[in-house]
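writing this on my phone so excuse typos. first protein, seq and then structure
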Amino acid sequence: MAAKSLRTFRIVLWSLVVVVAVAATALYLFRPPARPLGLTGQEFALASTQGGTFTQEDLRGAPSLVFFGYTFCPDVCPTTLAETTAIRQELGLTPEQLRIIFVTVDPERDTLDVVKSYVEGYDPSVIGLVGDADQTEDVKAAFGAFSEKAGEPNDPYYLVNHTASTFLIDADGSFEGTIAYEEARDTAVAKVRRLVER
């Protein structure tokens, strides 16, 4: 009798497992899980050189190339700004079709006016984003980006080590990949073309 009860219990248990599995599959197929904005889904809010506040929700609407840097950067940042604006021009895209977004990781020196002047030197449509120390940490966490000061602590001309990749963000605000610093030009152009044609 005990063996029969145990067998019945196992049948019921496995039946429940099958029901749950089928229900989960149906839920996924008919209502796919939302993809996070940016890379991790972390919320952030920064002042924009285009005016107002830019949040994770503003990543929606148009494909974007997002990269982190600072205006005192001697090499990576000016190179990346020059290359991203050149790629957009090469593909014949407008700022509405492909946004270029520069996020400073040096809130101590990079004020909104400093960043605005810096990015507009490459293209007036480039969006510069600026926050205080905590806001900067939030946006870095949102993209899984890294930065740290280098050199002497009291040196006003300190450098900042930072993530050098450019993040590809789809029009729905989702992360689609990266372009590495100094990646082959044809590969980078192909990635951007795929991003805007999705």
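second protein below, same order as before
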Amino acid sequence: MRLELHCHSTCSDGSLEPEALASAAGEFGVELFCLTDHDTMAGYERTRAALPGVRVLRGLELSCKHDGRTVHMLIWGVQPGPGCEALARRLDELRELRCWRIGAICERLAALGVHLDPEAILADAAHRTPGRPDVARALVEAGVCNSMRHAFDQFLHDGGPANVAIDGMSVEDGLALGRAAGARMALAHPHTLRHHALVKALFVDLRDAGLEGIEAYYGSVSPARAEPWLRLAAELDLVVTAGSDFHGEALAHVSRPGIELPSAHAERLRDWLF
């Protein structure tokens, strides 16, 4: 099954407009699509219009906190109504917090001898969700770092010298908002949590609260890397999902949107989502 359930446009930190991203996924032959920009659903209508004949879901990638760690949760199939409106209001609050964070990060960089203009960074991000990638891009443009990855490794990673942690939203609160909006939720790129035991504990604690899917097939990673997550899915009765995490130029190693989910998992995914 060809699908795309994890991708980013210019509404957050991707380099393609929503229409162009959706069209590229359509050229790959996806039959199911969801734009999952960080903490925003702004591009949904534009992708739906660009993919006639394809099942297009409203969703996002929600940044949450759990036991002090950043957890990215994919939310698919948000339905119109009061639940969607409540989620949108919470996203607006998060955007204000992210704008404050840009200024706070720039203050920390200044203390390290690196001077960036937070207003310029926010102006560049005026029509999308601002975040650490915007600061990373500014560091590259200023010649301080040679790549966005270098910027994160040197300054902006969790616990990094210029990073500013924000309380954000708990995974529990994110799951409750998603459920109220009629959506399904999955853990994005579980390998980024680094420890299998942490991922398992997260699902043990929160599966009954709505964290039912796991992104076992991810990006350009070898299918062999999916094996531990497939075993965990079987053990805990999780839904196996897939996504490219396409960003365009920001993550050039993922060359196009779209990914293949093996047929053994496709029917369960369809039944779960629809």
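The beta strands are 2-4, 32-35, 55-66, 69-76, 169-170, 184-187, 211-218, 239-243, 259-260. thats all i got for now
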